[in-house]
Amino acid sequence: MNTQQLKTFVQVAENLNFARAAESLNITQSAVSRQIHALEEELDTKLLHRTTRTVRLTPAGISFLDDAKQIIERLKYATAKIQHHTAAAMQVVSIGCGSEAHLDFLNGILDSCLKEMPAFHPFLRIISHRSLLNLFYQGELDLLIGFQSDIPLKGNVVYDELLHIPLCCVFPRGHAYAGKNEITEQDLLSERLVFCNSYALPAGALEYQNRITGYLPPESVYFCDNYQAALTLVRTGYGYCILPQSRFPDEQLCYIPLAGTDPLSYGIFYKKGVDNPPLKKFISIAKRSVKEDFLS
Q1: Largest interatomic CA distance in the chain
Q2: DSSP for 241-279, written as a single string
Q3: Which domain holds residue 210?
Q4: pLDDT digits 0-9 by tens, 115-173
Q5: Which helix (H) or strand (E) holds 143?
Q6: Domain harbouring 8, CATH code
Q7: Termini Cα distance of the chain
Q8: Is position 50 within any domain?
Q9: Do 257 and 269 belong together in one domain?
Q10: Is 131:66 a contact under the CB 8 Å cutoff?
């Protein structure tokens, strides 16, 4: 896979027309076809459905488009650093997150980084779980934030635990259970469940949801595929959802710990032995920030 193949794919995907892509890239249409064919051969999947009249992205093509754009932008950025001799002045660390929910965790850490590392440039990536793993293992991401169950530890991947987060039942503030100190499984059997079917949800939460769903009639379960959709349904009274505790309060929601569940291990993933001083400094700041802020 090379940069020209990625650029060609992006142009075809955005124009849905080989001729316009060729014109934009200042190459022949047959060259565009060769680049796309070579890329599909290497990925062993079809990225485009094409006929004599139409061009459409396949589901794999839709998924790959954002990754291709991000890789191209990262290469442009790296090239600019070298050309302008700024590599020594800029300390870039690319940080991957599986959902926007992880950004709350980074607030205090990045605030400390800004004060202690003036040349630090965090590159935050919020992308799908599958793409996140691919980019991390391929070296396109320096570090991941998430739950221990999120990322398979293989090769030289290291996990550093930063804190434990309780698994909670999330209710609207006005719910009858809002004043409880903890919720039992029995409490939930007469309630409606908002089932969050997202890769961003830790395995412990998914397992608990699956078990509860087995006791509920179909009309008492509302399905959605991301955090924000689940919280919207909870706020509007459709039911409760099972999520890790949020550090930042929401005046419309209450997070009540689930009785009998173990807290979830939360931390950072990176590759052992990588010579990246800014990354090491970030990890050090993250560990200290958690002790000073999250555990205070």
Answers
A1: 68
A2: EEEEPPSS--TTEEEEEBTT-PPEEEEEEEETT---HHH
A3: 167-262
A4: 998 888 899 988 777 778 888 888 889 999 989 887 778 778 899 999 899 999 999 99
A5: strand 143-147
A6: 1.10.10.10
A7: 48
A8: yes
A9: no
A10: yes
